[in-house]
Structures are given as C-alpha cells and as structure tokens.
C-alpha cells in the first residue's frame, strides 16, 4: 500500500532536481508518464509554440506518438526528424545531414529543439541546438536509464570524431529535462544494467549513502520497479548536479567534475577495443572500469581490499560485469594502454586517473606510471 501511495504521489507531483549553474538554472523533472504531460510541462517554458523533435527510429516507434499528442494538446507545433539508432548517429556526417535538413524545413531562433531518446540522441540533438542559428532553446527527454541518470545533468553535448568518442562538442544547457521513468519499461535488461553502472559510480565517487541504497534497492531498479527507478534517478541526478555546480566546465585542478570519470579511463579503452559496434555497451564498460579502478586503488595501497570485495559482490549479485573475466577472450594490455594514452584526459603525456580511498571517497591523480598499469592489467587477466 505504501508503494502505491508513493507512486500516486509522484504521479501528481513529479520530483524536481534543480541544476544550479553560474549563468543558468534548470530542473530535471522526474516521474512517471511525463511524456503524456509534456505539453503542459513545456508550454510555459518554450519561447514559441513550435519545436523540432529529434529522435531515433526505435524510440520513435515506442514513445513518439505520446509526445506528439501531448504537444498537440497545448498547440505546440512539432516537426520530427528521425535518425538511425546507435553510436554511429553521433557523427559529423549524421550531424551535417540533420542540421541541413532542419534548416531546409525552416527553423527560427525561438524554435526549441527537443531531443527524445537515449544519450546518443541527447548528445546529437544538444549539439544541433547549440549550433543551429548559433543556438536555440533545448529540451532533453532522456529515455534510457543511462541518459536519465547521467547525460541529463551537465550540459555536455557532442559528436564522435574519427580519432575517438566525444572529441567534438559544446557545453550547452537545456531549458528543462523531462525524465519520464515510464519510458524505461520498454528498455531491454542489458540497457538497464548499463545505466545502473553509472548510479553505482556516483555512489562510489562521493555518496556512500547512495552506494548503500544501491545495495538495498539495486535489484528493484534493475527489475524495473517504478518507485525504485524514480528514486535512483533522483539520487543520481542530485549527486551529479552537486558535482557539476561546483565545477561546471571541468576546470578544477583537483577533484571536481573529473571525478565523474571514475572507471572511465578503463571503460573508454575497452570500448575502443570493441569499436563501438554494440557488442560492448558504454555502461557495461563502466561496470568493468569501476572494478578495475577499485582494484588499481587497492594495488597502489590507497584503499583496503574490503572495498573492492564489497563492490565486486554488489556488481556480481546483479549480473553486472565485474572484471576482465567477463570478456570471452583475453584482451591485450598493450592495446588497452595504447587507447588510454589517446584519451582526451591526457595532460603533458600523463594520464589522469580517478582512484578510491573508500566507498564514497575518491580522488584524481596524475601520478600513475604506465608500466604499473600494464603489469596491473596483466594480473587482472589481460
Ligand atoms: P543510446 O542512446 O544509443 O540508446 C541505447 C539504445 O536504446 C538505442 O538503440 C535506442 O534506440 C534504444 N532506446 C532508447 N530509449 C529506449 C526505450 N525507452 N526503450 C527501448 N529502447 C530504447 O545509448 P545510451 O546508453 O542512452 O547513451 C549512450 C551515449 O550517451 C553515448 O554516446 C555517451 O557518450 C553518451 N553520454 C553522454 C553524457 C553527457 O553528459 N552528455 C553522459 C553519459 C553518456
Ligand atoms: Mg559514462
């Protein structure tokens, strides 16, 4: 009965997580059935009763009709542009075709761009919004757990380059983010696991209470329990909003926004090994990366082994990838190191790592020698 009451309450009053930045503030609105109420939620915020909706084929089939009906209810005229799904859509080629198409159909400075989809659509549509006519209002409607907990806060938009992921882009903040947790019902389990890894990451970085909450309720989130999903998105967005507000453009000399890269040096290298073809999802790579970051922290003496045990136990209890043994074949340490060295978080040839002292206690360092990492990777099963 408590569950039902809570669910009813969150229907009436979606949760709002404010993101407070130097020159801009916006809300991440979190709750069930927000798509059906998008017209009412957006009408007061849009400068013009007109919007360009960017989405991908799969999300269009599943969730676009609801959004269009809701916009029509409040007389917001919407023009839809659909791109293929997948990471390949975050390319200069797709961006070029899309932005020319949008311009050809006519867009004004006050026309909003609405991105409906996962992180790929969020990054692509955000970059279109940032650059078309030098910037138009942007609304993000994330439909994957990963994009709701991660890309909905922080204003990073962009594309992949031939030499690597996310190397082209801009900081561009939305007017509002609508995280409709009902859209998660159609998300495959594998995608839920991938998004969940970023929630665990948030807890590990600086929110021990969130990590403990994950230990208690992570199974519910992964099984698709609506109330647990709302609470997980709320906690993860609130965490990221705190970090981003303190270091909007990732310029802090120590800590700050760079902490959000916990596990990501390894994750990006793993993704590069697999060539972004869908065999390895970003969040799956992050899950392995979290294990590796914790294991390296133990190996370097920063962190007790009990922390690694606790993390691995949680990941494995929920079928999450928790080490290099998750891959069917051993990877080459040399190849992984090579990819890490090409990561954009390299300064003066030294690689930035985020390491742990404890659950919820992390720090950035540039002092890790590459050959130590190489030995470590071999010991981990490379
Ligand atoms: P994605 O956008 O590719 O979505 C994954 C798949 O799920 C796609 O095939 C999509 O069509 C489908 N999908 C989306 N919503 C669905 C739904 N409700 N039901 C069923 N299927 C659905 O991947 P993602 O994991 O959401 O995002 C990954 C991307 O996000 C990466 O490119 C990453 O770089 C980016 N990202 C950006 C930020 C940021 O701060 N800007 C943060 C994290 C990740
Ligand atoms: Mg990530």
From TrEMBL:
<dbReference type="GO" id="GO:0008652">
    <property type="term" value="P:amino acid biosynthetic process"/>
</dbReference>
<feature type="binding site">
    <location>
        <position position="198"/>
    </location>
    <ligand>
        <name>Zn(2+)</name>
    </ligand>
</feature>
<keyword id="KW-0460">Magnesium</keyword>
<keyword id="KW-0547">Nucleotide-binding</keyword>
<keyword id="KW-0456">Lyase</keyword>
<dbReference type="GO" id="GO:0003856">
    <property type="term" value="F:3-dehydroquinate synthase activity"/>
</dbReference>
<feature type="binding site">
    <location>
        <begin position="119"/>
        <end position="123"/>
    </location>
    <ligand>
        <name>NAD(+)</name>
    </ligand>
</feature>
<comment type="subunit">
    <text>Monomer.</text>
</comment>
<dbReference type="GO" id="GO:0005737">
    <property type="term" value="C:cytoplasm"/>
</dbReference>
<keyword id="KW-0057">Aromatic amino acid biosynthesis</keyword>
<feature type="domain" description="3-dehydroquinate synthase C-terminal">
    <location>
        <begin position="195"/>
        <end position="346"/>
    </location>
</feature>
<feature type="domain" description="3-dehydroquinate synthase N-terminal">
    <location>
        <begin position="81"/>
        <end position="191"/>
    </location>
</feature>
<comment type="function">
    <text>Catalyzes the specific phosphorylation of the 3-hydroxyl group of shikimic acid using ATP as a cosubstrate.</text>
</comment>
<comment type="pathway">
    <text>Metabolic intermediate biosynthesis; chorismate biosynthesis; chorismate from D-erythrose 4-phosphate and phosphoenolpyruvate: step 2/7.</text>
</comment>
<keyword id="KW-0028">Amino-acid biosynthesis</keyword>
<dbReference type="GO" id="GO:0004765">
    <property type="term" value="F:shikimate kinase activity"/>
</dbReference>
<dbReference type="GO" id="GO:0005524">
    <property type="term" value="F:ATP binding"/>
</dbReference>
<feature type="binding site">
    <location>
        <position position="282"/>
    </location>
    <ligand>
        <name>Zn(2+)</name>
    </ligand>
</feature>
<keyword id="KW-0862">Zinc</keyword>
<keyword id="KW-0511">Multifunctional enzyme</keyword>
<feature type="binding site">
    <location>
        <position position="165"/>
    </location>
    <ligand>
        <name>NAD(+)</name>
    </ligand>
</feature>
<feature type="binding site">
    <location>
        <position position="264"/>
    </location>
    <ligand>
        <name>Zn(2+)</name>
    </ligand>
</feature>
<keyword id="KW-0808">Transferase</keyword>
<comment type="pathway">
    <text>Metabolic intermediate biosynthesis; chorismate biosynthesis; chorismate from D-erythrose 4-phosphate and phosphoenolpyruvate: step 5/7.</text>
</comment>
<feature type="binding site">
    <location>
        <begin position="143"/>
        <end position="144"/>
    </location>
    <ligand>
        <name>NAD(+)</name>
    </ligand>
</feature>
<keyword id="KW-0418">Kinase</keyword>
<keyword id="KW-0963">Cytoplasm</keyword>
<dbReference type="GO" id="GO:0009423">
    <property type="term" value="P:chorismate biosynthetic process"/>
</dbReference>
<keyword id="KW-0479">Metal-binding</keyword>
<dbReference type="GO" id="GO:0000287">
    <property type="term" value="F:magnesium ion binding"/>
</dbReference>
<comment type="similarity">
    <text>Belongs to the shikimate kinase family.</text>
</comment>
<feature type="binding site">
    <location>
        <begin position="183"/>
        <end position="186"/>
    </location>
    <ligand>
        <name>NAD(+)</name>
    </ligand>
</feature>
<keyword id="KW-0520">NAD</keyword>
<keyword id="KW-0067">ATP-binding</keyword>
<keyword id="KW-0170">Cobalt</keyword>
<comment type="similarity">
    <text>Belongs to the sugar phosphate cyclases superfamily. Dehydroquinate synthase family.</text>
</comment>
<feature type="binding site">
    <location>
        <position position="156"/>
    </location>
    <ligand>
        <name>NAD(+)</name>
    </ligand>
</feature>
<comment type="function">
    <text>Catalyzes the conversion of 3-deoxy-D-arabino-heptulosonate 7-phosphate (DAHP) to dehydroquinate (DHQ).</text>
</comment>
<dbReference type="GO" id="GO:0009073">
    <property type="term" value="P:aromatic amino acid family biosynthetic process"/>
</dbReference>
<protein>
    <recommendedName>
        <fullName>Multifunctional fusion protein</fullName>
        <ecNumber>2.7.1.71</ecNumber>
        <ecNumber>4.2.3.4</ecNumber>
    </recommendedName>
</protein>
């Amino acid at each position: 009965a408590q569950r039902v009451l809570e669910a009813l309450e969150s229907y009436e009053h979606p949760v709002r997580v404010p993101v407070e930045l130097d020159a801009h503030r916006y809300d991440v609105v979190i709750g069930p059935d927000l798509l059906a109420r998008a017209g009412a939620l957006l009408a007061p915020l849009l400068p013009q009763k007109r919007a360009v909706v960017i989405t991908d084929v799969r999300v269009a089939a599943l969730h676009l009709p609801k959004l269009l009906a809701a916009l029509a209810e409040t007389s917001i005229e919407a023009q839809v542009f659909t791109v293929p799904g997948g990471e390949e859509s975050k390319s200069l080629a797709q961006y070029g075709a899309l932005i020319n198409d949008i311009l050809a159909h006519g867009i004004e400075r006050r026309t909003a761009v609405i991105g409906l989809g996962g992180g790929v659509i969020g990054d692509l549509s955000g970059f279109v919004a940032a650059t078309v006519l030098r910037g138009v209002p942007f609304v993000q409607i994330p439909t994957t757990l990963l994009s709701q907990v991660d890309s909905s806060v922080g204003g990073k938009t962009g594309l992949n380059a031939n030499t690597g992921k996310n190397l082209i882009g801009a900081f561009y903040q939305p007017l509002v983010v609508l995280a409709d947790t009902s859209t998660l019902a159609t998300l495959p389990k594998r995608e839920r696991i991938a998004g969940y890894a970023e929630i665990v990451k948030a807890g590990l970085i600086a929110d021990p209470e969130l990590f403990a909450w994950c230990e208690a309720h992570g199974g519910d989130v992964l099984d698709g329990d609506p109330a647990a999903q709302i609470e997980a998105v709320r906690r993860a967005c609130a965490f990221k909003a705190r970090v981003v507000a303190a270091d909007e453009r990732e310029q802090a000399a120590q800590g700050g926004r760079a902490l959000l890269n916990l596990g990501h040096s390894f994750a990006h290298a793993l993704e590069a090994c697999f060539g972004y073809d869908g065999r390895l999802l970003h969040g799956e790579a992050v899950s392995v990366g979290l294990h590796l970051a914790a294991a390296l922290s133990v190996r370097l003496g920063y962190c007790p082994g009990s922390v690694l045990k606790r993390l691995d136990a949680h990941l494995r209890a929920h079928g999450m990838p928790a080490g290099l043994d998750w891959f069917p074949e051993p990877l080459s340490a040399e190849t992984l190191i090579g990819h890490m060295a090409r990561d954009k978080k390299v300064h003066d040839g030294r690689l930035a790592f985020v390491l742990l002292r404890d659950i919820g206690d992390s720090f950035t360092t540039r002092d890790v020698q590459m050959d130590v990492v190489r030995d470590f990777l071999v010991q981990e099963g490379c």
